[in-house]
Automatic annotation (TrEMBL):
Function: Constitutes one of the two catalytic subunit of the tRNA-splicing endonuclease complex, a complex responsible for identification and cleavage of the splice sites in pre-tRNA. It cleaves pre-tRNA at the 5'- and 3'-splice sites to release the intron. The products are an intron and two tRNA half-molecules bearing 2',3'-cyclic phosphate and 5'-OH termini. There are no conserved sequences at the splice sites, but the intron is invariably located at the same site in the gene, placing the splice sites an invariant distance from the constant structural features of the tRNA body.
Species in which this protein is naturally found: Imshaugia aleurites
One of the record's GO molecular function terms: tRNA-intron lyase activity
Residues the record marks as active site: Y353, H361, K410
Protein's UniProt name: tRNA-splicing endonuclease subunit Sen2
EC number: 4.6.1.16
Top-level taxon of origin: Eukaryota
Domain (tRNA intron endonuclease catalytic) ranges: 323-417
Pfam family, one: tRNA_int_endo
Top-level EC class as recorded in UniProt: lyase
One GO cellular component term: cytoplasm
InterPro entries reported for this sequence: tRNA_endonuc-like_dom_sf (IPR011856), tRNA_intron_Endo_cat-like_sf (IPR036167), tRNA_intron_Endonuc_cat-like (IPR006677), tRNA_splic (IPR006676), tRNA_splic_SEN2 (IPR016589)
Any GO BP: tRNA-type intron splice site recognition and cleavage
Length: 464
């Protein structure tokens, strides 16, 4: 390289390495714990007497003209009997329910509805990473860490073998003795680590070859071959030809992104849907066939019937319906400020998050069990046998569930829901009242919740 070329290379600015896009500000996105708006009073300043007047004025103003905590247009959804869930299709409602309370899950995603963002990134329209990609990155980092740890352990064993080899007179015998000793102590650690390393390397796909910059057809190749015989050299692509393959403009990218139809909807389980409809009053659920609005009383009976498989009739409902037990526990923990999510992944009913799944892992895993403490359930031998069969669990079951939670660093919470006697529903049926006459609040207040926290004790980890 001449001095002139070196000067030109130094004068040209080098391209800065591309930085990954920043992660979303989850503290700002999920600032509200529920999809309702709260209006707190102004703070009280002890050394400023005017703050008391400000508080009094604000209190009287909101007492005379109270602002609405609900959205102007309630969120719409419909009940799907096939999936026994409630579907929300409006994108505004989907984002609001997920960002303010982590309600539901995406039908085409693991938890957060992110199918549209994944599709845009697959087409090269956006550069932001989704939660599924973050999970894949963490798993890849964890896999590399385990491989590095296995390599260091294998090197330590080999170094120890080399140190003990000169002690014996026969080197071959010493090597066999040392290897047998360490394999016995470590349980075949060397072979297992080697096999795991080979499996990991075999699972990693080979990187595809880089695509060529110039593509040509078979006819062009034949022409080029004939031309090469005559000593003709094909011309290089000019700047105008290279500009034809330039990147699309921002307008084209935005138009293509807007043309993608979002094929994902939000799925709410019956407990979440009934909490949003009955407790918060921000969700309206309609019948899928008739588009008729379903009131809370109708949903209460509908969810109870569909908690059985196949769905039962209204006259067959009992106070220990699966929906009633699950919703009582869900409403209880939501009222305590927990973010509660389904826990089928860890063989439990619910998972309790302090703020949400994007901030930290779940601290507690909840298993809901019925408790028949009322004297009515011991009045006859048939009721005693039936209730004992429902509430009795084996020690094998308890140890299995507790072992799973200890492996994922969660504390198991046994949530006992005390079932009242069957007084509410038969009273409605006997007087032939309509479903709308059912007082949901009077039924729910008969249930009580008791919590029992279990933790697996391991002597080698907890010696205090």
């Amino acid at each position: 390289m001449t001095s002139r070329e070196a000067a030109e290379s130094l004068s040209q600015p080098s391209e800065a390495p591309s930085r990954p896009p920043p992660r979303p500000n989850y503290g700002k996105i999920h600032a509200k714990p529920l999809p309702v708006t709260a209006y707190p009073l102004p703070p009280l300043i002890p050394h400023n007497p005017l703050s008391i007047l400000h508080i009094a004025f604000t209190y009287l103003y909101r007492l005379l003209a109270p602002p609405s905590s609900h959205p102007k247009i309630l969120y719409q959804a419909y009940f799907s009997a096939e999936t026994r869930s409630v579907h929300v299709t409006d994108e505004t409602a989907v984002r609001a329910l997920w960002e303010r309370g982590f309600f539901g899950k995406g039908s085409l995603s693991r938890s957060e509805p992110s199918w549209l963002n994944r599709e845009k990134k697959r087409r090269g329209l956006v550069a932001n990473e989704t939660s599924e990609e973050y999970t894949a990155q963490r798993r890849a980092e964890r896999r590399r860490f385990k491989q590095e740890r296995a390599r260091k352990e294998r090197e330590a064993i080999e170094e120890k073998l080399k140190e003990e080899r000169p002690i014996h007179e026969n080197g071959h015998l010493a090597e066999q003795t040392a290897r047998s000793r360490y394999e016995g102590l470590n349980g075949g650690l060397v072979d297992s680590l080697a096999e795991s390393m080979e499996c990991l390397f075999e699972q990693q796909p080979l990187s595809p070859p880089a695509p060529s910059l110039i593509t040509f057809s078979l006819s062009d190749a034949a022409n080029d071959t004939d031309a090469g015989k005559e000593g003709h050299v094909p011309p290089l692509p000019t700047e105008s030809a290279a500009s034809d393959n330039s990147k699309p403009t921002e307008q084209e990218i935005e138009a293509e992104a807007a043309a993608i139809e979002n094929q994902e909807h939000l799925q709410l389980n019956p407990s979440e849907a009934f909490f949003l409809t009955y407790a918060l009053g921000i969700l309206q659920i309609r019948d899928r066939a008739t588009s008729a609005l379903l009131p809370s009383e109708t949903l209460f009976s509908l969810f109870r019937r569909h908690s059985y498989f196949p769905p039962c009739e209204s006259q067959d409902l009992q106070p220990d319906d699966p929906f009633l037990l699950q919703y009582v526990a869900y409403h209880h923990f939501r009222s305590l400020g927990w973010v509660i999510r389904p826990g089928i992944k860890f063989a439990v009913d619910w998972l309790l998050y302090l703020r949400g799944p994007v901030f930290s892992h779940a601290e507690f895993a909840v298993m809901v069990l019925p408790a028949y403490t009322h004297p009515h359930w011991r009045s006859t031998h048939e009721l005693q046998a039936s209730t004992k069969k429902k509430e009795t669990k084996s020690w094998w079951w308890l140890h299995c569930v507790n072992r799973v939670q200890s492996q994922v660093r969660k504390s198991l919470v046994i949530c006992y829901v005390e079932v009242p006697p069957p007084w509410a529903v038969p009273a409605v049926i006997e007087r032939k009242a309509s479903v709308e006459d059912i007082e949901i609040g009077q039924i729910l207040q008969k249930y009580k919740v008791r919590e029992l926290t279990l933790k697996r004790w391991t002597p080698n980890r907890e010696r205090d």
